[in-house]
Design goal:
This protein is an alpha/beta fold. The chain has six helices and four strands. It binds 4-nitrophenyl phosphate. The site of 4-nitrophenyl phosphate has 10 residues, from loops.
């Protein structure tokens, strides 16, 4: 079983969007039994909340299921539980490494470093541009699935 964890600051905008898009891609490829997907926050600010309404609206627009998603905070147990721990931006990666006590493990990395963009996923909490974030999330998830399948 391959387990993927997306991490952002609040776990209500970017990482749940990546979780939902990745799960959808995995389902469409018939790989749901092999690849599990989850997401978490570095902060405790939104624990228990559903995704941001902008994230939910964007996922609904593309017919991607949002059922059952609730924000949770990253825990030290996540390091052993997941094979891929992916920060949506550089500060998410830094904070994840600090919280897990893992300064250099390669399974913790920045999402868009899998793509030619090699940049942070813009945070729609601040930009209000959920389309820009969605497009980059789709690109990153496709690259991640290729990476996993080529392993
Ligand atoms: P996210 O976006 O990390 O993509 O979920 C944010 C959500 C909430 C806040 C900041 C960013 N906040 O300041 O509450």
């Amino acid at each position: 079983m391959i387990r993927v964890l997306f991490v952002c600051l609040g776990n209500i905008c970017r990482s749940p969007m990546a979780e939902a898009v990745m799960r959808d891609l995995v389902e469409k490829r018939g790989l749901s039994a092999e690849i599990k997907v989850d997401s978490a926050a570095t902060s405790s600010w939104h624990i228990g909340e559903p995704p941001h309404k902008g994230t939910m609206a964007k996922l609904k627009e593309y017919n991607i299921s949002i059922s059952g998603m609730k924000a949770r905070q990253l825990t030290v147990a996540d390091f052993e539980a997941f094979g891929y721990i992916i920060g949506m931006d550089a500060s998410n990666v830094r904070n994840t490494r600090d919280m897990l006590g893992q300064p250099d493990h390669p399974k913790i990395f920045r999402f868009l470093d899998l793509t030619p963009h090699e940049k942070d996923v813009p945070d729609p909490w601040y930009t209000d541009d959920f389309q820009e974030t969605y497009d980059l999330v789709v690109e990153g998830c496709e690259a991640l699935l290729e990476k996993i399948l080529n392993k």
